[in-house]
């Protein structure tokens, strides 16, 4: 049984993305060896597409015009469609592209008009990398424990001090967002816009095994001055400015990360079909089964995206479930693909080696599987995850026979 929640325009977007993904595989291999080579891939269609995503049309972004619709990547469902296809080409090269990326989702949640004009204006002006800095060396999964400080400066501005870690694209970024603490407790967390040209900003690339193109960095802020108008959420109530906004942002982003995992799983699945000779008997059955699983998890991811698009604050449980399922799928698929080629597969099939490493990286992005499971079970214990009534998008589909989800 097959099915999809994607409408005709989204199916057309998917087909276009599949076409645009051409060239990412080669770029990914080059960036895996040398992440600094990123500029030479600026004209790939997928890279140009990523550079425009998450910039609303009213700020001057052309978006993607297909099947009579214009897409700006403002919904999670659009992003899952694009990211799966691009990651099937190469996840590392996709994440290495300039664009609003994670910061764009946060700006959409927390930015006021002036902040959006500044942020989107720079992105429309020229392809610009951005970064999103939440994780700290001593506070990874437990983001509430972050210690980077935002203190009042002498002239009404603020001063940022602290360290972050594993921050994608930070050493090549023109701007980004940093989460910092103004006071103890969850209400004491704020996000600020940072211009990387400001004195006191330091980014040091880290040696990574997976998704190497995206140049993950350790950051240090040394008395970095933050103008008062770069503190996000000024126009919102204190409860909506800090960790609430981070949670909402992660809910909206997780289906996209899950889609990247599916793209990696598909790349491994297709590689065995292309290079593994004629599959027969148990091997053929195993590979067919993996194909069904990919479809099934994709449907879960699309549903999760629809839920967060309908209401980002209540859709988090399904998004976490989708992210956990998809990252496990990517790891299972890439390792299973290696088994087809024997014990030295990762040596003799460099693409498979890269896919295994990239899949491992996705497991940690936006929260490892244990954290996703904690979110799901916390929702279950709180009665927020039930038998469908918690998920309006699922209800809307029930009875239509349109979606296999198992
Ligand atoms: C490829 C990649 C991209 C990233 N991009 C960014 C980025 O752009 N910006 C950013 O800010 N961060 C980024 N990160 C950081 C990422 O969010 C963290 O790695 C992640 O939150 C886990 O934190 P940690 O690495 O400190 O691991 P830890 O928090 O130390 O966790 C290690 C292990 O312990 C488990 N664990 C931790 N706490 C619990 C618990 N309470 N119960 C059960 N198990 C637990 C985890 O599941 C994990 O398996 C990225 C990481 C990677 C690998």
UniProtKB/TrEMBL annotation:
Sorted alphabetically, which Gene3D superfamilies does this protein's record hold? Answer: Acyl-CoA dehydrogenase/oxidase, N-terminal domain, Butyryl-CoA Dehydrogenase, subunit A, domain 2, Butyryl-CoA Dehydrogenase, subunit A, domain 3
| InterPro entries attached to this UniProt entry | Acyl-CoA_dehydrogenase, Acyl-CoA_DH_CS, Acyl-CoA_Oxase/DH_mid-dom, Acyl-CoA_Oxase/DH_mid-dom_sf, AcylCo_DH-like_C, AcylCo_DH/oxidase_C, AcylCoA_DH/ox_N_sf, AcylCoA_DH/oxidase_NM_dom_sf
Keywords assigned by UniProt, alphabetized: FAD, Flavoprotein, Oxidoreductase
One Pfam family named in its UniProt record: Acyl-CoA_dh_M
Q: What is this protein called?
A: Medium-chain specific acyl-CoA dehydrogenase, mitochondrial
For this chain, the family text in UniProt reads: Belongs to the acyl-CoA dehydrogenase family.
Q: Spell out the PROSITE patterns in the cross-references.
A: ACYL_COA_DH_1
> Which species is listed as the source?
Amycolatopsis dendrobii
Q: Which cofactor does it need?
A: FAD
A GO BP term, please? fatty acid beta-oxidation using acyl-CoA dehydrogenase
Q: Which is one GO molecular function term here?
A: acyl-CoA dehydrogenase activity
Judging by the UniProt lineage, the source's domain of life is Bacteria
Looking at the keywords, is Flavoprotein present? yes
GO CC entries: cytoplasm
């Amino acid at each position: 049984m097959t099915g999809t929640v994607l409408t005709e325009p989204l199916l057309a977007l998917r087909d276009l993305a599949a076409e645009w993904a051409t060239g990412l595989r080669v770029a990914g291999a080059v960036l895996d060896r040398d992440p600094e080579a990123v500029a030479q891939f600026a004209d790939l269609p997928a890279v140009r597409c990523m550079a425009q995503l998450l910039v609303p049309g009213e700020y001057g972004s052309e978006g993607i015009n297909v099947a009579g619709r214009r897409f700006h990547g403002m919904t999670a469902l659009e992003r899952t469609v694009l990211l799966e296809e691009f990651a099937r080409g190469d996840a590392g090269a996709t994440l290495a592209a300039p664009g609003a990326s994670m910061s764009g989702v946060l700006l959409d949640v927390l930015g006021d008009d002036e902040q959006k004009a500044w942020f989107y204006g720079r992105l429309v002006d020229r392809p610009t990398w951005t970064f999103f800095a939440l994780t700290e060396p001593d506070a990874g999964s437990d983001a509430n424990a972050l210690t980077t400080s935002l203190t009042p400066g002498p002239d009404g501005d603020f001063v940022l001090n602290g360290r972050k870690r594993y921050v994608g694209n930070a050493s090549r970024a023109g701007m980004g967002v940093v989460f910092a603490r103004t006071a103890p407790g969850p209400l004491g967390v704020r996000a600020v816009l940072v211009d990387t040209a400001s004195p006191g900003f330091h980014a040091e690339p880290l040696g990574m095994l997976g998704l190497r193109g995206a140049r993950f960095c350790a950051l240090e802020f040394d008395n970095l001055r933050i103008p008062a108008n770069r503190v996000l959420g000024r126009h919102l109530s204190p409860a909506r400015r800090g960790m609430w906004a981070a949670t909402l942002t992660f809910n909206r982003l997780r289906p996209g990360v899950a889609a990247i995992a599916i793209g990696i799983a598909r790349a491994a699945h297709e590689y065995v079909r292309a290079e593994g000779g004629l599959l027969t008997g148990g091997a053929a059955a195993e590979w067919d089964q993996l194909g069904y699983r990919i479809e099934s998890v994709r449907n879960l991811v699309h549903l999760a995206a629809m839920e967060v698009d309908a209401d980002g604050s209540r859709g988090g449980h399904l998004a976490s479930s989708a992210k956990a399922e998809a990252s496990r799928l990517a790891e299972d698929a890439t390792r299973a693909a290696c088994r087809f080629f024997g014990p030295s597969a990762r040596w003799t099939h460099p693409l498979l080696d890269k896919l295994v490493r990239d899949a491992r990286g996705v497991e940690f992005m936006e929260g490892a599987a244990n954290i996703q499971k904690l979110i799901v079970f916390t929702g279950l214990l709180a009665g927020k995850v039930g038998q469908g009534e918690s998920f309006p998008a699922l209800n809307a589909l029930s009875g239509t026979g349109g979606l296999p989800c198992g």
